[in-house]
Structure formats: C-alpha cells, structure tokens
Write a structure and sequence with these properties.
With 854 residues, the chain is an alpha+beta fold. It folds into three domains: 401 residues, no CATH class; 238 residues, no CATH class; 142 residues, no CATH class. It has 29 helices and 22 strands. Strands 1, 2, 3, 4, 9, 10, 11 and 12 form an eight-stranded mixed beta sheet that branches. Strands 19-16-20-15-14-21-13-22 form an eight-stranded mixed beta sheet. A hairpin with an 8-residue loop joins strand 14 and strand 15. The longest helix is centred in the middle third of the chain and has 54 residues.
C-alpha cells in the first residue's frame, strides 16, 4: 500500500509540486503583506504624531489657592501621578513619565536694551536633574523669605547672548532677581528640552497684547523661591503636568481610540474638585483626526485591492487542486470500479493534497515570519487555514464525483466547455453571485469611505470579478462556436485546430480564465487609483501654488518685478495685488480684493484648475456679501471700486478656501500702493534661492508643495501596496497560465506528436500553442482590465483620495503608461511561456506512434 502511494505521488509529481509551491507562496504572502501593511500604518501614525505631540494638563492659580493645591515638590509629583492614573488605557500606554513645572508670568526686564526682554521664573524639578552648573553656584532661597533678592540661575547661552554674568541683578515688576550661577544641559539632545527651549537660550516672543518682539528667557528657581511666589496673590502661576508621547509606541490601531479617549480625559480633568481648575492641551487632536481620515481612505482602497489579491491566490490554488483532481480521476475511477468505497478513495486523493499543501503552508508561514515584515497578524493564520481547507475541499469534491462508481464515471462523461449545458443549479448560483455583487456595490456606496474595513464590503471587487467571470464563461463558448465555421473555411489549419482544442477544455481548464480575470481586475484597479492619486496631487500642487513658483511680496516696485522676470529659468511672471479688509457700505464683513490680469494669468499657468474666464470673480462667501447687484468696495489707502461679480470661483492660489475674496482686473487697483503683492512665476529649473534673492521675499515652489504632498503619512504605504498588489496579482496570473501549460504539457505533447506525423511543422506547433492560449488570455485579461478601470467609479465614495490631495477632488481615473506597458508585458510573457512549454515538451512522432496508441 505504501509503495502504491509512492508510485502515485511520483506519477503526479507535476501537479503536486505546483500545488506545494503555490501554497508556500500564498502562505508567505498571507503573512508578509498584512504585516508589512500594518508596519507601514504604524510608521505613518508615528510620522503623523510627530514631535511635540505631548499631553499637557495646565492650570493657573495664585496666592493661597496655589500653595494649598501644590505646597511642595512632593505634592507636585503626587498631582502628576493623579493625572497619570486618570489617563485612559490607550493614552497611558503611549506616554512617558510625567514632567511637572511651575512658571511665573513673563515680566518685562527693566532697563534700556536694543530689544525688550521678558523673564520668566520657573520651578522645574526635572530640569535641575538635567543640568550642570559651570559658573557660580545653584540657586538657593531661604525658606520663609519674603523680601530681598530672588536667587535664580540662567543658562550660559542666555547669559552670553544677552551680556549677563554671575552676580548680576535683574529687576522685573519690582522684584530683584540675583543670578547665582550659569548652567549647561548635560545632554542638549535630550527630548526633555524640546518644549523648553526658553530655559536653554533666549527665544523671540511678542510683548503681551502687542506685535513688538522681545528676547525671552526662563530663570530656574528652587522650591523655596516657588513658595515665595505663592505669597503674592497678584502673581498668577502656571502649573503644567506634561506627558510626553512616545511616538514609537503609537500604533495605527490605537489612533481612533486615542482620539476618543482624549475627550474622556478632558472631562476627567475638568471634573476634578480637589485642585484648582485645569484643562488639557495637546496637538494630538488635529493630528490624529487628519491621520484617521487618511487611514480610513487607505484601509478602504487597500482593502479593496487586498480582497482581489486574496481571491486571485485562492483561485490559483483551486486551479492547482482541480488539475490534480483531474489527473487522479482515472485512478479513482479504476479503484471505484474494483469496489473501493468513497472512504478508501479519500486516502489517495485527500492524502496527496494534504501532503503537498499542509507542509508548504507551514513553511510559508515560517518564511513570512522570518522576513520580519512587521508585527504578526491574526488574520494571516485565518487566511492560511482557509486556503488549506479550500484546497482539501477540492479533493473531497473530487472523491464525491466518483460516488456513481465504475469506469463510466471517467469514460462516459463529456464536459467540454462548449458542449456542456449549464444545469439549473449552476444557473441559480450564477444569478446568486450577480445579485450578491449588486447588493455589495449598493452597500459599499451607502457606507462611504469606511466601507473598505468591512470584509463583506471589501469583497465587492471579488464579487464583481466573479460575476463578470460568470458572464464571460457564458459568452466564451458562444464565441468559440462562432469562430469554428469561420476558421474552417480558411486555408490554414493552425487557427482552426487551436480554437478547437481551446473548445475541448472543461470547466477546470477554464478556471484560469476566472483567475486571469481577477488578476487583471486587481492590476487595473490599483494602476488606475495609483495614477489618479499622483494626478490629483499634481493638480492640487498647481491649485495651491498657482504657478511653478509664487512670490509672496510686500509692496513691490517695478524694479523688483523686472528682477524676477529676468531671473534664470523664468519665462514669465504675472503680478497680483492683494488688498485685505475691504468692505461695502452696507456690510462691514471684510473682503479680500485680488487684482490680477486673469487672461494673462491663465496663459501663464493653464494647469491651474478652476479658473474661469476674465471678469469679476467672487468666492461663494464674497458673493453673499456683495449681493447680486453692483457693490462698492473700499478701505483706507484704496480708492473705492465698483464691482459686479460675473462668475463664482471656489478657490484661488494664495487665498484660503472658503474665505471671502473677489478677483478684479489689475487695472482697477493699480493705483492702490503700499499693499502686498503676489507674483506668479512660470519657467523651468527655477532656483528658489536665486528667485528669493531677486525678489527679496518669500517664495513658494510648486515642486516643494508636491513633494510635501507625496511625503504625507500613508501615501508611500498606498503606493507600495498598490505596486506590490499589481505585481503579485500579475505573477499569480502568469503562474496560473504556466500551471495549466505544464500540467497538461505531456498530454498536449502526445497530441502534437500525432499532428506532427500528419504534417504539422515545428513552426506551426509554436503558433498552435499561441492560438490555444489566446482566447483565454484576451477574454479574461480584456474583461478584467476594463472592470478594473471602471471599479473606482463603481465604488464611488470609497475611493475618495481628497485626504491625500489637500482636499482637492480627484475625478480622473486613467491608468498611466507604465501600467499599460506592464499589461502588454504580462501578455507577452504568457505567450512566451506557452511557446517555451511547447518547446520543452516537444515529442518525436516516432516515439509516440510506437506506443501503440491509436
């Protein structure tokens, strides 16, 4: 019995090897792809959180209220622990040790300086542990002291830059601060100092309620100095407990929970009654909100692509298992005719399949983990288990097909694709599949951008592909039957014989058609969406910048405009005058007036979308302010102008979307001098530094805007996943073609040998190989590619790429040249594989005829 099993395995080595290799590759991808995608999500959320994303509990108190709430350093630390205990789980898992501080208001330093100075007094226990005194001695205030000089330390960089030294006296708001020592940080690169730059060196701030710049710094005091500050009820101290976020500990799965838990933490902080009022401040809110929006889009589109890729892999495995079953049918038929039960048939059928699939699945999982593409995902184990069960299920079906018994189960059946008549059961299944696809599309469009996270909705491309495959399988035999009479009348026999052999394929032989169709759907969808994303970002960069470069200038004279136009690489420039704060006599709402020659601007930058023809253009908000008739706009320094909007404009480069602005011809505001200007610059290879030197103002380069968009978190994840998905889908499709060719090569070689004996040449044999595979390739790839191109439109709101294009809508879904070249290359590879297999299994006619076969 054991010897018989070994002989059977040797006889079926080709399909067994193919099944083992395909199972290994599928298991490897089932582990590596989800892990790599999740790792990309985690890297993206870390980049989105970025530096300075800490959670701060901040409160203000003075006098006895301040001292009773925080009487000592121990109380300051105890409050930090109390806040930490109130942190929800998603936040407490990603924050570091709390950092506590107390800071006095910034007071102006008395004296005459080139620029005003502000000095803060800070009690920072954490800072004391991270500095070393280089001159003088640490600050020490006597406990209970209420008068005299306040002892404090300042950073050496602060003292050197502002001309202080040890022993100097600084007077602020009637208080004398004595500098007892100068210090330096033990580690300037310590993240602790990032939000505390004012402690290490002077920073530039504005004086309260003014736009006057001042040099600001913080002097460190001890706990006794803090106690002294609390004795003055007029000094309102700022208490801050900072929880630094460890960006490496934040995962994409925590992002949504963190956003929700921040609101819960705010409520807990505001509800605390045993301390002065405090509130939570953090930059995480907006960052997490933006990231979750992009993550939702990424998960949706990647979910659609991944669902198709899983279906392609499953289809290839089903094809391999089905071909193995077809090869085993004669053996099983003979065993059944000799009285073997179905249980006895299950041994060789399911045993061989399990021998090829199970060890390969285990090896594939191990290889995927060794790649260390990212954190392990539970879904990988489920996917591998489902694939193995499906493969074993095909073997079980193969056994059940022999329940009729006898050799008749093999010899009396005719299940050619062209000759077979679909049963009622198959008709019901086809209708059910199409119905599920339609329902899935309806649900997907109703669910919107979050639909891709639902496995049922993410399977819509698979359902659509399968439904289209059903239709193609219905039409495919009709086309082959129609081609037969036409080719029969032609002089050459290669085309007729090739189509005839293609018609003799059964449903298992036609399974490559469905696999190729799904692979083409995945490739077409990913190529289309990827190109749409790139095109949308390109258009968005034009919409935001307005030209290849935009100069943000103050009052601009003609000499500066000439220097801009003569800068290297500049081919043209259009000036716009921007007047903010204009109002009408009937409505005090401010309107920004932008004077520009729209015709000249449209010629300069035709790539900028959404610019109507010349005339007076008003934003929607400005149109409501101005009304439908003539309106007079005026402000100080500008002569009144009468405008009547001829059209609306949603956005204009340099103006915030949704704001009130009106575009008027430049001549209407040419006489208004002293107002800022913008210069839109066209050209090639423009040097931003040269342009900035020529204009003396800030320059916004379109290429920089585009680069920032393409470097947004998750953009690289989407691009890489789409690229890998298209390559993997194409590879699986080619493997399906190669599998069918190799497994059926021996039988085909015997047939070709007989044809060679009848006069078929080697060259005609190669042509016959191409004709045999051409109907499947053209029908499957053509139909699948068209569905892939239409899929972004079918899925509608799911493929919403605006989070990656600055809110700019993307409507163009056309694959790029590289995608079309890739499709052509895949077809050529499939054709080359057919020719190569034909050559590899070319059999001498004499050897075949000597076997005694008729």
């Amino acid at each position: 019995m054991r010897g018989a099993a070994i002989r059977l395995a040797r006889a079926q080595w080709a399909p067994l090897t193919a099944l083992a290799v395909l199972t290994l590759v599928s298991a490897l991808l089932a582990v590596a792809v989800p892990s790599r995608t999740t790792a990309g999500y985690d890297r993206a959320v870390a980049a989105a959180v970025g530096p300075g994303a800490d959670i701060r509990v901040r409160g203000e108190a003075a006098g006895s209220t301040a001292f009773s709430g925080v009487p000592s350093e121990a109380a300051l630390g105890a409050n930090a622990i109390a806040w930490q205990q109130r942190l929800p789980r998603s936040l407490s898992d990603v924050v570091g040790e709390p950092e506590s501080s107390v800071t006095s208001p910034g007071n102006a330093v008395e004296g005459r300086f080139s620029r005003p100075r502000l000095l803060y007094l800070g009690w920072e226990p954490g800072a004391w542990r991270r500095i070393r005194v280089v001159t003088g001695q640490p600050a020490y205030n006597k406990p209970g002291q209420t008068s005299g000089d306040m002892q404090a330390m300042v950073a050496k960089a602060y003292a050197d830059r502002l001309g202080h030294k040890t022993g100097d006296l600084i007077t602020i708001s009637g208080m004398s601060v004595r500098i007892t020592g100068l210090y330096e940080p033990l580690n300037p690169a310590d993240p602790f100092w990032a939000p505390r730059a004012r402690i290490l060196h002077p920073t530039v701030e504005f004086l309260p309620k003014t736009t006057i710049e001042a040099d600001a710094g913080t002097a460190l005091i001890d706990s006794a100095g803090y106690t002294r500050l609390t004795r003055d009820p007029r000094t309102k101290l700022t208490y801050e407990w900072r929880f630094p976020v460890r960006t490496g500990a934040v995962s994409a799965g925590q992002a949504r929970a963190m956003g929700r838990d921040l609101d819960a933490f705010r409520s807990a902080v505001e509800g605390r009654a045993d301390l002065f009022p405090c509130e939570v401040s953090t930059a995480l809110d907006n960052r997490l909100k933006e990231f979750t929006g992009r993550l939702r889009t990424a998960q949706s589109v990647i979910g659609l692509a991944s669902g198709g890729l899983v279906a392609v892999a499953a289809g290839v495995l089903l094809l391999a298992a089905g071909l193995l079953g077809e090869r085993l049918r004669p053996v099983l038929g003979v065993m059944r005719a000799r009285g073997a039960s179905l249980r006895q048939l299950a041994g060789p059928a399911c045993g061989l399949t399990a021998l090829a699939a199970v060890p390969s699945a285990v090896l594939g999982y191990a290889a995927g983990r060794l790649l260390d593409a990212g954190p392990p995902q539970t879904v990988s184990i489920y996917a591998i288990a489902v694939l193995v069960v499906v493969v074993l299920g095909v073997s079980a079906v193969t056994v059940l097909r022999e329940r009729g018994g006898g050799l008749g189960s093999v010899t009396d059946r005719r299940d050619d694709l062209v000759a077979a008549r679909p049963s009622r059961r198959r008709l019901v299944l086809d209708v059910l599949l199409v119905t599920l696809a339609v329902i899935g599309v309806v649900l997907l469009r109703e669910r919107g951008a979050s639909a891709g996270t639902d496995p049922l909705i993410a399977a819509v491309p698979v359902l659509l592909g399968a439904a289209l495959g059903v239709l193609v399988l219905r039409v495919y035999p009709v086309l082959l039957r129609a081609a037969g009479p036409f080719l029969r009348r032609r002089s050459g026999a290669v085309a007729f014989i090739g189509v005839a052999r293609a018609s003799r394929q059964n449903l298992v032989g036609a399974l490559p058609l469905v696999v190729l169709l799904l692979a083409a759907v995945v490739a077409g969808f990913t190529a289309t969406v990827d190109t749409a994303l790139r095109t949308g970002q390109e258009r968005a960069s034009w919409a935001e910048t307005g030209a290849e470069a935009r100069v943000e200038a103050g009052p601009l004279d003609d000499a500066a405009l000439r220097r801009i136009r003569t800068a290297p690489g500049v081919t043209g420039a259009v000036r716009a005058r921007v007047i903010v704060g204009a109002t009408t006599a009937t409505d005090p709402a401010p309107v920004t007036v932008v004077g520009v020659d729209v015709d000249a601007y449209r010629k300069l930058a035709p790539e900028v979308p959404g610019i109507p023809d010349s005339g007076v253009l008003a934003s929607p908000l400005a149109a409501r302010t101005l009304g439908s008739g003539d309106a007079a706009l005026s402000r100080a320094g500008m002569d009144p102008i009468r405008v009547k909007p001829s059209a609306q404009i949603e956005s204009f480069p340099g103006q915030e979307t949704g704001s009130a602005f009106v575009i008027v011809p430049y001549r209407m505001v040419a006489g208004a001098t002293g107002f800022p200007s913008q210069v839109f610059v066209a050209g090639h290879d423009i040097d931003a530094k040269v342009l900035r030197a020529a204009s003396g103002n800030d320059v916004v380069m379109r290429r920089d805007v585009l680069r920032d968009m393409t470097r947004l978190p998750l953009v690289s994840v989407v691009h890489d996943t789409f690229r890998d998905g298209a390559l993997a889908g194409g590879t699986f499709g080619l493997l399906a073609v190669l599998l069918v060719l190799v497994v059926g090569a021996r039988a085909r070689g015997r047939t070709i040998a007989h044809l060679r004996a009848l006069g078929l040449s080697r060259r005609q044999s190669r042509g016959l190989a191409l004709v045999e595979i051409a109907p499947v390739l053209l029908c499957a790839v053509g139909a699948g590619w068209v569905l892939g191109l239409l899929l972004p439109e079918i899925t509608g709101p799911v493929v919403d790429l605006r989070p990656y294009t600055g809110g700019f809508a993307v409507t163009a879904h056309v694959p790029g040249v590289s995608a079309l070249l890739g499709l052509l290359g895949a077809l050529l590879l499939a054709a080359a594989a057919a020719v190569a297999v034909d050559r590899a299994f070319d059999t001498d006619p004499g050897n075949v005829l000597r076997t005694g076969d008729s």
